[in-house]
Amino acid sequence: MARFKNRKKKNFVKPPIVKKQPNVNQVTGDKIPKSFVFSRGKIPGPIKQLELDIRKIMLPYTAIKLKEKKRNNLKDFLNVAGPMGVTHFLILSNPKSIPHLRVARTPQGPTLTFEIREYALAADIARAQTRPRCPKDLFNNPPLVVLSGFGGGDQQHLKLTTIMFQNMFPAIDINTVKLSSCQRIVLLNYNSDTKLIDFRHYSIRLQPVGVSRRIRKFVQNHQVPDLRNLQDVSDFVTKAGYGSESEADEEAATVSLTSDVGRVNRASSKSAVKLQEIGPRMTLQLVKIEEGLCSGGVIFSEYGKEAAEAKDAANEGD
């Protein structure tokens, strides 16, 4: 008599769903810029941490866990960038102990080279603040970009710098953008006298006008207040040491809300807009613009053609 073997049925396991980031902005119809942030050559520990901080700035459209190897060259990153829709490279290097930041448009350039004159890491900014603020959902949306001082004169290199920084981040439609998605801002201020660019990264915070700090914290955290030693609820609101009725300055910028933003900021009300620096902080100087991707003819050079060629030869040696 034939024997039938007991065959165990294999449970069907559904493959994990991978959420792919869209390549086209559904609102504006423009291509969403994406970036790679990596380093070339030997760099010290603080510059390596600065690289990780810059990756956070470019979130969510960047490779936050991009792994680099010594044998990787620029062509390796370029080959991967095409299928992934990467449009910009941000490359950190440290030739002659002077930190450099190159911002390049893929795949054919141009490339802007900046000297990092001064910088402060995000951790340094947080340690210097009494109440550092960095919520978990802060990096779910790209930052807004504000450029100041780049419009003066007809200097071609400033126009190219403006276009490059604007195209690094997704464009927004002011008529349809949700205020709750605007949580960060990147500010670049150009000083025409010193020819330096101040790079700052802030978080945007809304505070209701006319509400004391104690009431706002109570609503946000759902804390049960201790009213045993109080005679009336008004004592809880006006108790000494809890601050004034409005923590926002009279000259602070205000915005009228058309939809609810959080538990305290309600529609049909005014809220004060406050910026809190989250870092990193950099002071940049534009030293060279090349036509191609880290190569090609020099469109602009701060040190002159001969000095630029000598500097390129030194960088290649490193």
TrEMBL record:
One of its GO terms (cellular component) is preribosome, large subunit precursor. GO terms for biological process: ribosomal large subunit assembly; rRNA processing. One of its GO terms (molecular function) is rRNA binding. Residues 33-295 form the Brix domain. Transmembrane segments: none annotated. SMART domains: Brix. This is Brix domain-containing protein. The lineage of its organism: Eukaryota, Viridiplantae, Streptophyta, Embryophyta, Tracheophyta.
